[in-house]
Amino acid sequence: MAETVYPVPANWAQDALVDEAAYHAMHRRSVEDPVGFWRDAAQRIDWIKPFTTVKQTSFNEADFGIEWFADGTLNLSANALDRHLETRGDQVAILWEPDDPADAARRITYRELHADVCRFANVLKSRGVQKGDRVTIYLPMVPEAAVAMLACARIGAIHSIVFAGFSPEALAGRITDCDSTIVLTADEGLRGGKKVPLKDNVDEALGHCPAVETVIVLRRTGAAVPMVPGRDVDWAEVAAAQSTVCEPEEMGAEDPLFILYTSGSTGKPKGVLHTTGGYSVWASITHQYVFDYRPGQIYWCAADIGWVTGHSYVVYGPLMNGATTVMFEGVPNYPDASRFWQVVDKFGVEIFYGAPTALRALMREGDEWVTRTSRKTLRLLGSVGEPINPEAWEWYHKVVGEGRCPIVDTWWQTETGGVMISPLPGATALKPGSATRPFFGVQPALVDNEGVPIEGAGDGCLVITDSWPGQMRTVWGDHERFFQTYFSTFPGTYFTGDGCRRDEDGYYWITGRIDDVINVSGHRMGTAEIESALVAHAKVAEAAVVGMPHDIKGQGIYAFVTTNANVEPDEALRRELVQWVRHEIGPIATPDVIQFAPGLPKTRSGKIMRRILRKIGENDVSNLGDTSTLADPSVVDHLLANRPQLA
Ligand code: WTA
C-alpha cells in the first residue's frame, strides 16, 4: 500500500530547534543516559533547592516506585509567572476570546496575571486552604480558571478540575472522592450561545457533599443565582479584599500538583495524580520541542481546561515557556463554521493545536468556511485526543494549513502528563495518521496478548518500558489500583490500554483503545460508567455498552438494554434513557443507539460476551466468531434481527 510521506520542509529543517540528526542524537542519549539527560533538561526549571537525585523508578512489583528529582524543591506558579516578570512582564500571557465574537476579548499580561494569581492565592488562604488541601474547580473557559489553577499551585493546594460539561452527579462523585471542602465555580457558563447552569449544578451536587464549606462564585453572565449564606461568596468581592503579594510555597518535587479524574475500563473514574517537579519539566519541555516554541509566539491550544490537554498545553506548558496562550471560551461552529479561523486571524495565531473530532465536523461544512479566512500567520498545526484519520489529516494540511504547515499528531494520555509520541516539526517526515516517533526519554514497545515483545514492524499492545518525568504517580486514594491498572497486565512495563502498529520506518500508528474504554469526540468514557448509569434507572434490568464507528465523533456509544420484566420498551423509554444518562454523567455520554433486548449474550457462567456486542456495534456481523459457549445462542439471533436502523 503506497502511503504518502511529507518530508520536513526545508525552512523547518533549517530553523527548528531540533533537526533529524539532533532528534536521533538526543533521543539516543535520553534512553542510554536518562540520568544525565534529565539532569541537564531539568535546568529549564528554576529550582528553589536543586535536586541531587534524578531518577528513582521501578515498574516491578517488588520495588515498585516512581520518583523524579525527589530532593529538589520548586514552585510551579513561580516558574510560570514570577520568573518572566523582569523579561516579559508586559507581554500578553493570556489572550482570551469569549464565546460571542461581539463581546470584548481580554489581554492579560504576565504582570497582571501574576497579581491576579497572588490575590486569589490569598483568597484561598483566607478561606483556610492549606498546602495539600484539595480544591475542586468547576469553571468555564475563562482566564479565572487559569488564575485558580496557578493560585493553587502557588500555595501548594491540589486542584481537581471537573469539566464544566459534567453533571451534578459526576461532580459530586469527584468532590467526594478527593474530600474537597471548597469548590470554585461561576454563575453560568456560556458555550455556543447556550447557558450552562454551573452554580445550579454545584448546588445540586453539594446536596451529596456535606463537607464542602466554601463555594466561590465567579460572575460570568450575571444571572441571579441563589447564594447560601456562610458558604457561598462572590469571587470579585473576596478577591478585592486581598493583597497582590503572596510568596510562592516551597514544594517538594514529589508533592502533589493536581488530580484529574479519567475513565478507565472498570469502576468509577480514577483520580490521576501528578506531582510538581517531573510534571513541570515534562509539560514545559514537550511544549517547547513539539511546537518548536519560541517565547512570544502566539499559540492556541483549543482544548478545555477540564481535560489534561488544557492543563498541560493551555496553561502550564505554555506559561512556563513564556508564551502568549490563547484561551477560547466557545465552540468551533458558533456563530458559524469559520469561528476557529477567524480567531486565528484576529490574534495572528502561529501555532494551532486541536482535536480531530472538531476537524471532521468542520470538514463536513465545506472548504469555503476556511478559505474565506486568511490564516497567513499559521506555521504549525497539531492534533490530539484520538487517532486522526488520513482524510481529516489531508484536509487539515491542505485546506487549513495550505500545505505549508507541518502537523504534529501527538499521542499521549491523562496518565502521561504530556506528549509521548509525536513528530517534531523540524525533524520528522510526516505520514498522515501516524503519531510517528517517541519524544525524548520515551521507550515504547509492542507486545502481543501474552506479553511477548514484538520486534520490528508489527501490531500489538502499546507499553512503555521505562519511566519518564511526567508520569502519573498514583491513583488518588488507591495506590493498589494504580499498580493493578497499569503495571500488572504486562509486568515490568506501563500498559497504555492502546493498540498500536509499528511500520518498517519505526513509526507508531495508534489504532485505538483495546480495553473497555471508548473515545467519544476525544473524550474518554468507560463503558462500565455508562452501564452503571443505565442500570440505575428503575426500569432497566441490565445494560452493556460498546463503541461504534461514528463519522464525526470517532466513536459513538451503542447501548444494549434489557428492561425489567413488567416494562414494555418503546420509543418513549428510549428517549427517557438517553436523557437519564445525560443527567447522570453529562451530555458527552449521550448514547447514540439504544437497542432493547430481552437478553444479552452470556456464557454459561453468566459473563456477558462483549466481543459479540462489539461486533454488532461495529456492524461487522458476518463472522461473530465462536458462539458455542453461549448459554442461549438464540439471544444473538434476536439481537441481529432487531438492530436499529442507523442513519
Ligand atoms: C487516545 C488525551 C491516537 C488514546 C491527551 C489514548 C490518541 C487516549 C491520540 C487518552 C493520538 C490521544 N492518536 N489516539 N494522537 N491522542 N489518543 O487521557 O486512545 O483524554 O489512550 O488524553 O486518547 O485520552 P486522554
UniProtKB/TrEMBL annotation:
Keywords: Acetylation, ATP-binding, Ligase, Magnesium, Metal-binding, Nucleotide-binding. The modification N6-acetyllysine is found at residue 607. GO terms for molecular function: acetate-CoA ligase activity; AMP binding; ATP binding; metal ion binding. Mg(2+) binds at residues 535, 537, 540. Its EC number is 6.2.1.1. ATP binds at residues 385-387, 409-414, 498, 513, 524. Gene3D superfamilies: 3.30.300.30, N-terminal domain of ligase-like (3.40.50.12780). SUPFAM superfamilies: Acetyl-CoA synthetase-like. The keyword Nucleotide-binding applies. Catalyzes the conversion of acetate into acetyl-CoA (AcCoA), an essential intermediate at the junction of anabolic and catabolic pathways. AcsA undergoes a two-step reaction. In the first half reaction, AcsA combines acetate with ATP to form acetyl-adenylate (AcAMP) intermediate. In the second half reaction, it can then transfer the acetyl group from AcAMP to the sulfhydryl group of CoA, forming the product AcCoA. Belongs to the ATP-dependent AMP-binding enzyme family. This is Acetyl-coenzyme A synthetase. It comes from Novosphingobium arvoryzae.
